[in-house]
Design a protein that fits this description.
heterodimer, A: alpha+beta, Rieske Iron-sulfur Protein, 2 domains, about 15% helix, B: about 600 residues, mainly alpha, 4 domains, two-stranded antiparallel ribbon, about 60% helix, elongated
């Protein structure tokens, strides 16, 4: 091991200080260049936005029961996954139901609590999330005061085109918040 | 702060560790010749940092490896810099390894009691080269794919266990997903872990025995910090500067070239790749193998390199003899010189090899082309980017033309790929076929009987040539104007992408030209044109030169709609199954200039 007694004492004073400083600065640069290059790439996802499709056709009026019971439909649209672009693939699902006045209601099937898919339980006439038991009434509101979900099911814009086609403007929303904020 | 450090020190002993690290004794004071080891540690650190970040975006499978590397390189912010750092640091590292080895041998640092540490170093040399080899394959581009194939095929020449060993390494009988998963696990897991362990051992042993001082000592001993540290840091900075230079070199000289590391076209087992070469630091081995005729390959690939390595490993013992050290230094220099000469020979041979140079050009073209296609709105299909080139008329058209058409036809005087075929031209030159310009030549009495049109076919003495040479040649000025309109109309049948604007502009002329074709110019005496005519004896002009017309023509030129019984030598490419429907479509789209050009979608 080192035997300091034989060593020339480390240079002190201004010359020694400059050497130390220089060694430190260069050392920092040497480490920072690869680390910053890596961090830039790591943070690349921050500038990527989800592809927002316009409304897509989900089904037709004929597929929807008259009695207001919700039914689940897949939503097909373009999905960009890094280098791949898939067209007409499932990007989510919606519950659709008829209202008394003949209008339609659409919910994103994702539970606003933590993102699981909710089930519609026909026997109870309400939605239940299988993960943490959030319960929602058939109109999407929180059904149970002890529900962990911070808000009701997320409604989506829905319209009928050409007398029978049902078109939905599909969006996902951030889970776990009381307000409905779209995922960008 | 001090209390916190005290607390930490009592529990970890970090002060002592730092002191030991920084105040290592440097006999004779700091010197530049001691920096090599530190630059290698620095390179290793860069590789670990950049490698882990690359890992976060890399996907090892034969449908995603190239694609993910492309995405890192071209789409992710700073990806080119990250990949460039990793790539060129690996290159510089091989140079530094050799320099480090040379310094150790020249200074006699391998001698007792440092034999074991010398072997640690040799093992590290091998492992780092193995990392280069495995890393070369990971982008799954043509270059890495074919070069690595050569390397793994050499494994099969190992006596007895070779074939089994090869299967284990590549994860099956053929290259595929498991070749990548295995190479990646080696490259990012097994090898770096082993390297780390050995580097720890290497440095520990180095510390145990101390630095081998270069005699005579010029100054009194000094501590590692700060003088030697500063020298090491400056050397590492030079390494980093060299790496950054290599990344940016094309931009610095204003030349056209990739920013950062190269990425070839995606690996395609069905496409020959004559430009396959290992990376430059393995070129000497590649060249060496050329001197071993069949069946003696095992000597060039395994036995001789093995013996050389054994001699190097035994240097600590050889060095004990009186002239041993001199032998070692001499052996080392002949090795380095030999490798240099072999590398030089390999490079010179390639520079004079037309086939290789053409292959490199073609490879560069395809590499650039696939990136244009990958950036198209449709993106990269799930089957992988390799299908982009397979379905691309601009890439495949010339190859199909060269293989199947160019024994008679020409494309601008060559075979589509730029080579002039051995067979003399005996059928029309099809560049810009059916364009206004091409048709103007066809109706030129001076040109119709040249080899670029019917001159070398049996139609040289046919009705069409006679018609042009006898009648058209005597057309009065007024008639000529009519002929020009007819040419514009006939050319419009092809709906060529290059003439879309002109065809739209000349809609009125085209309408008139169509009428002239059927009436004044009497083309319909022999040809059909938009009306069924059972008596027609010459090719149908309805949709002349259009995609459908050309596909039908190439499929069967002897069909009654075309030449019928009078067909010259042209094969029935489609009907006889010489080319597939897809191949005919590709060559037609290429001839018609219909392909994605990066600015707008191709009109299909």
């Amino acid at each position: 091991m080192a035997t300091p007694r034989e060593q020339e004492p480390p240079a002190n004073g201004r010359r020694g200080f400059i050497k130390r400083l220089l060694a430190g600065v260069i050392g920092a640069v040497l480490g920072l260049v690869p680390a910053l290059a890596g961090l830039t790439v790591l943070l690349d996802p921050l500038r990527r936005k989800t592809a927002v499709d316009d409304a897509v056709q989900v089904t037709t009026l004929d597929a929807l029961p008259d009695d207001g019971v919700p039914r689940k439909f897949p939503v097909l649209a373009t999905r960009v996954d890094a280098w791949n672009t898939f067209s007409q693939v499932p990007i989510g699902a919606v519950y659709l139901r008829r209202l008394n006045d003949g209008k339609l209601q659409a919910f994103n099937v994702v539970c606003p609590h933590a993102g699981c898919f909710v089930d519609y339980l026909a026997a109870q006439g309400n939605f239940l999330c299988p993960c943490h038991n959030s319960a929602f009434s058939v109109d999407g509101h929180i059904a149970d005061r002890s529900s962990p979900s911070p808000r009701g099911l997320d409604t989506l814009e829905v319209e009928v085109r050409n007398d029978r086609e049902i078109w939905v403007k599909f969006r996902n929303f951030q889970a776990g918040r009381a307000e409905k904020v779209p995922v960008a | 702060m001090k209390r916190l450090l005290d607390w930490l020190d009592q529990r970890t002993g970090c002060r002592k560790l730092t002191r030991e690290a920084l105040y290592e004794n440097v006999p004779g004071g700091a010197r530049w010749r001691y920096v090599w080891g530190s630059t290698l540690v620095f390179c290793l650190m860069v590789q670990f940092i950049t490698g882990i970040f690359l890992w976060m975006a890399y996907s090892p499978s034969s449908q995603t490896a190239w694609e993910s590397v492309y995405f890192i390189q071209d789409e992710m912010t700073g990806g080119w810099l990250l990949r460039g750092l990793h790539h060129y640091t690996a290159h510089i590292m091989t140079v530094l390894l050799v320099l480090h080895l040379m310094q150790v041998i020249i200074d006699g640092a391998y001698k007792a009691p440092r034999e074991v540490n010398f072997w640690f170093g040799l093992a590290l040399l091998g492992l780092v080269l193995a990392m280069s080899l495995t890393g070369y394959l990971l982008p799954w581009d043509q270059k890495g794919y074919w070069a690595t194939k050569v390397a793994t095929n050499l494994v099969a020449v190992v006596p007895i266990i070779g074939p089994a060993l090869q299967k284990i390494i590549i994860g099956g009988p053929e290259y595929g997903h498991h070749t990548l998963t295995r190479f990646f696990a080696l490259h990012a897991g097994v090898l770096p872990a082993t390297v780390t362990a050995l580097v720890v051992g290497h440095i520990a042993l180095f510390r145990k025995h101390g630095l081998t001082a270069k005699e005579p000592k010029r100054r009194p001993d000094a501590a590692f910090w700060p003088d030697q540290v500063l020298k090491d840091a400056v050397a590492c900075l030079a390494v980093l500067a060299a790496v950054l230079f290599l990344i940016l070199r094309h931009r610095l000289s204003g030349a056209d070239g990739p920013l950062g590391a190269d990425l070839g076209a995606p690996a395609d087992p069905s496409e020959t790749y004559s430009a396959a070469r290992p990376d430059w630091y393995f070129l000497f081995l590649f060249q060496f193998l050329k001197y071993f005729p069949g069946k003696t390959e095992v000597w060039g690939a395994i036995i001789i390199p093995g013996l050389v390595f054994a001699v190097v490993a035994l240097m600590p013992f050889i060095g004990r003899w009186k002239l041993g050290h001199r032998f070692n230094v001499g052996f080392l220099f002949s090795l380095v010189a030999g490798a240099g000469l072999l590398t030089f020979a390999a490079v010179r041979e390639d520079r004079q090899n037309e086939t290789y140079l053409a292959a490199v050009k073609a490879a560069e073209r395809e590499a650039a082309r696939v990136r244009v296609l990958a950036k198209a709105p449709a993106g990269i299909p799930a089957e992988g980017a390799v299908t982009l080139l397979r379905h691309d008329p601009l890439t495949q058209g010339p190859k199909i033309f060269a293989a199947s058409c160019a024994s008679c036809h020409r494309y601008d005087g060559h075979d589509g790929t730029g080579n002039v075929p051995a067979d003399p031209q005996s059928a029309p030159d099809l560049k810009d076929f059916a364009s206004r310009e091409w048709l103007t030549g066809l109706f030129d009495p001076q040109r119709i009987a040249t080899t670029n049109y019917f001159g070398a076919t049996k139609f040289k003495s046919g009705k069409m040539v006679r018609f042009v040479q006898e009648k058209v040649a005597k057309y009065a000025a007024e008639r000529r104007v009519e002929l020009e309109k007819a040419i514009i109309a006939l050319s419009a049948e092809a709906q060529l992408k290059s003439q879309l604007a002109a065809d739209q502009r000349d809609a009125v002329l085209i309408e008139e030209g169509r009428r002239l074709l059927s009436e004044e110019l009497s083309c319909t005496d022999c040809h059909q044109f938009h009306h069924r005519d059972e008596d027609a004896t010459a090719p149908d002009l309805t949709g002349y030169g259009s995609r459908k017309w050309l596909i039908n023509f190439i499929s069967n030129p002897a069909h009654p709609d075309f030449y019928g019984d009078r067909n010259d030598r042209m094969p029935r490419f489609g009907d006889d199954g010489v080319l597939t429907e897809q191949q005919i479509g590709l060559v037609v789209d290429w001839l018609r200039g219909t392909w994605y050009d990066g600015t707008r979608a191709a009109s299909r």
